[in-house]
Amino acid sequence: MEVFSDVVCPFCGCLCDDLEITVENNKIIKTKNSCAISLSKFMHHEDNRLNYPTVDGRRTDLVEAINESAKILASAKRPLIYGLSSTECEAINRSIELAELIGGVIDSTASVCHGPTIITEQSIGLIKSTLGEIKNRADLIIFWGSNPTESHLRHLTRYSMFPTGLFTPEGRKNRFIVAVDVRKTKLSRIVDLFLEIEPNKDFELISALRAIVRGVKIEAEQVSGIPINILKELAERMKKARFGVVFYGLGLTQSEMGDMNVNAAVGLVSDLNHHTKFVILPMRGHFNVAGANTVSSWLSGYPFAIDYSRGYSRYNPGEFTAVDLLERKEADAALIIASDPVAHFPASAVEHLTKIPLITIDQKVNMTTLLSRIVIPAATVGIEADGTAYRMDGIPIRLKKIIEPSEGILPDSEILKMMIDKIRVLKGGY
Amino acid sequence: MNEVVVTLISARTIEQGIGLEIGKTSEQYQNSVSVIELNPSDFESLEISEGETVEVESDYGSVLVKCRSSQDVPKGRAFMPYGPWANKLFSSSTRCSGMPQLKGIKVRVKAAKGLKMPSIVELIDELRRL
Amino acid sequence: MADLIIKNGYVYDPLNGVDGEKYEIHISKGKIVDEVDRRDAKIIDASNMVVMPGGVDLHSHIAGSKINIGRAMRPEDHRKDVMPRTSLTRAGVGYSCPSTFFTGYRYAQMGYTTVFEPAMPPLSARHVHEELNDIPIIDKGAFTLMGNNYFVLKYVKSKDLNMLKGFMAWLLKATRGYAVKIVNPGGVENWKWGKNVGGLDDLVYNFEVTPREIITSLAKVNEELGLPHTIHLHCNNLGVPGNWETTIESIKSVESIKPSEGRTRVVHVVHCQFNALDGENWVKLKSGACKIAKYVNEHNHVTIDLGQVIFTDTTTMTGDGPWQFRLHNLTGNKWVNSDVEMEAGAGVVPYTFRKENPANAIQWAIGLELALMVHDPWKISMTTDHPNGGPFLYYPKVISWLMSRKARTDTMLELNRSCIKKTGLAGIYREYDFNEIAIITRAAPSMLLGLKNKGHLGVGADGDVSIFNVNPTDWKPSMYRDVENAFSRAAFTIKKGEIVTKNGEIAANPLGKTFWVDAKVSEKIESDVLEDLRSEFKRIYTVSLNNYPVQDAYLPLSESVEIQTGRCLS
């Protein structure tokens, strides 16, 4: 029996790194400090696994699966590489190298979660800090369209609501917590102020707050379903906070005009910095979605939505983003890495995916693997393979390998390297 | 037939997270995401009982899911966890941003007594026939 | 790899006193040697060309979270300069925030072989190293940010310099850093409450220490540890008119500190141009370069680099959060702020230096004045503080300004004359020669960094050589465009004995190594520091102490400089 301490959880953007995992005979038998989802991840990582590569549903060996994949990708005119957010950085790095090599389009799941955050960063910027700053200093925390009680289960205890820190010795008592959402949640029951707003009305509400902070008189009696006097109180509270933070989630990015919502929120926080310290942090979902944007930026200059068809990187969300490329029926082959777009894309984008040669590298059976022409099983990153992941706030943490994968099952990065080598051969050493 | 028009929000849930880590084809996952939640008053107007199948229809598609009532959902709104059922309702248009709108779209919900909700495998078969 | 002989070139090797002599350089197994066997050697004919050691850049933001924020937030920056993939090279894009592969290629094309990233937040050190590993060809390293670190402030407050010493040694090793970087000491901690410090004797909230105490403590321990580089100081009040006084005061504050054995310097002031502003405000701005230069000329404990301004659109990025907020408000340009718990901060704001902007014209002149008014070129390193003053791609242009008064005059003629009068540049006739250029781009930075095998061509040095297609015997300052062209595309760049570029084209794509410092302290100090870290870490950090240090996996190719020091401070 072996106990691994300081294990990093490869599920959500919190990347909690204080797990204790007990392993016996190469099997995980116990976890400590895990949240419910993390527990499920570690204890069920062997369930519903892909055990061998398949081509057209037929069992095959890795070499043939790689060769067939290489043929498809090398001859495709508009190949799409998609996924990346649930693997480690070396694999992301290889994916981008592969996209370069085949002149493909590469996009990550960021495009359907915090793509609007990135678009905002490119238009007006972003005012952020690492999570420890919140833990140590924040006395006003606003969860806007985000709900860690369903998606980031230890966020409240480790980083935001409850922890004690350097200048927050009494933890929860030192903080005023606000939730803004369109429905009641577990979070809304435990905060100091809950604003239940109308769907698709975030932009109006944020803009009203911004106007009040700037001293503009508002004539409306309520905005987005919230009485103006409550907004005035909140604006005052924001200005007077010692250190304030907005944690926003997909409630802003996936509603109507997602990027404009984020743009307004960052603008509000920017204005607040003339009064006090205020930061704003996106609640990134997948454990390494931040890493996908990070690695992509240093290699290609762009965080997502990249086209290499001219040999160098070009960027255009809306054009080179996966959903749009599929909706336009442009892609003629796709390689999916650690993601399940068939389950998570809107139906008409999925429809095109079913009509092109699809290659999927994943650990488990999912809707995309069930529809793929070629399926290559991979080791579970953070359990059977090590590597780097970037936390939601950009902090890089080393994932651990705690057990050996089944024989013949390789990490994503090695599978991708084999694919690259094979395609280079097919392309005569290019 | 009774029908309500509501604004649909999709989002993550703990059960969905736990289920997907067991596996997309697992019972737990399918049970966790093939559901729509309505405010009790909207729910009652459909004259169905808890867990019964409803048909949810948007301008872009329709799907059969089970229906529950929830005090947490305000009247006129509905909630579905992310997943293949909810995604049949959304448009792939991204307004050139890359991001389809996955929250805040209008849907019509009506009772579908006697109809069976599709399983993951059936959803896949449907896609294969496309 | 075949041995290499470079013959017929005019060699400039200032560290070995070679000033334009014609002689052969022999390289074997990656090192400069006395002589190789001619029959098996590859011979490069450098007739009518300049031969120098490979370029060394001691301050260029090439890797890590800041430059990467710049890349991500500025798609508009990248379209100006693109490199498609070839069978030998990876794809890349520029310009002020170039991608990693592009960075390595462009530096090598200009004859540079060693570059240091000057601002590594410890908590994101892994990020810096991941990027360094994707920068091909050049050797590199990174300086660890310490001037606003919680433990540094704590030990400075308690005046426990032994603990400070142990902590600095531990942090350098934990981050695989090469030197101690200080950015706006105290000001960045105060920025975490939305405030700043205004001078050397302002207080840091909650810690009750001053910037002066932070600087002097770190400098003192830096020298006690005998680190290869001095403290690398980004002074308080950067970018504030009138800040020359703070700069001189900062340098003065460490005047009496005993330098480490074998050197006189105890502080390196970075991108000095941004800290040599005189005048009460931006309207009354004038050059403070002569005041700084005078002080530097009279003292031997300080060296500076330029932070030369280039007239172009660029991206400013520093660990100085409050300054970037100020710049955002001055320009209205987009602003990313990024504070790092317990230790650092950063900000990124795009900026365009314009010829028609009076302040920019003065800043441009200040950088050149500093280089020309400081008599001893060994005190100067050429930088643009890439990309703050401008992209590193413009180094050849800076060289032409320094080597040719006509080049400066031609630029000055495009500027507002009344601005130039607020500087002393028009009255300066000095022109650098090739030897002095070799000093400020190679020998001096290498010496300041304590890199024994870089920046020179003596036997045993690394086989890093650059060859430029300009004939120093018939070159005149009026031909400044020739020198700019020659330095833009080296005829040959040789890295570790391998030809990596030829006529400005990439010829080989090896991975360079990463330098870091392994400073040893007594076991007692080491264990005391670890105990203190253990007792505090969990409460104040969000990453566990065991997961904090950079793992060996991030240094596939590295060279550690081991420093032994057992001496206790009294």
Structural description of this entry:
The complex is a heterotrimer of chains A (430), B (130) and C (570). Chain A is of the alpha/beta class and 430 residues long. Chain A has helices at 36-43, 62-75, 89-102, 115-123, 131-137, 148-151, 155-158, 202-213, 228-240, 250-253, 258-272, 289-300, 322-327, 341-344, 347-353, 367-370, 412-426, and strands at 2-7, 19-24, 27-32, 54-55, 58-59, 79-83, 105-108, 125-129, 140-144, 176-181, 193-196, 222-223, 226-227, 243-248, 277-282, 306-307, 314-315, 333-337, 358-362, 374-377, 387-390, 396-399. In chain A, a hairpin with a 2-residue loop joins strand 12 and strand 13. Chain B is an alpha/beta fold and 130 residues long. Chain B has a single domain (3-128), classed as Barwin-like endoglucanases (Beta Barrel). Chain B has helices spanning 14-22, 27-33, 40-45, 120-128, and strands at residues 3-11, 35-38, 53-57, 62-69, 77-81, 103-111. Chain B has a 6-stranded mixed barrel with strand order 1-5-2-4-3-6. In chain C, the strands form 6 sheets. In chain C, strands 8, 11, 12, 13, 14, 15, 18, 22, 27 and 28 form a 10-stranded parallel sheet that branches. A 7-stranded mixed sheet of chain C has the order 3-2-7-23-24-25-26. A 4-stranded mixed sheet of chain C has the order 5-4-1-6, with no helix packed on it. Chain C is globular, with a radius of gyration of 22 Å. Classes of the chains: A alpha/beta (430), B alpha/beta (130), C alpha/beta (570). Chains in contact: A-B, A-C. Strand 8 of chain A pairs parallel with strand 20 of chain C, so a sheet runs across the interface.
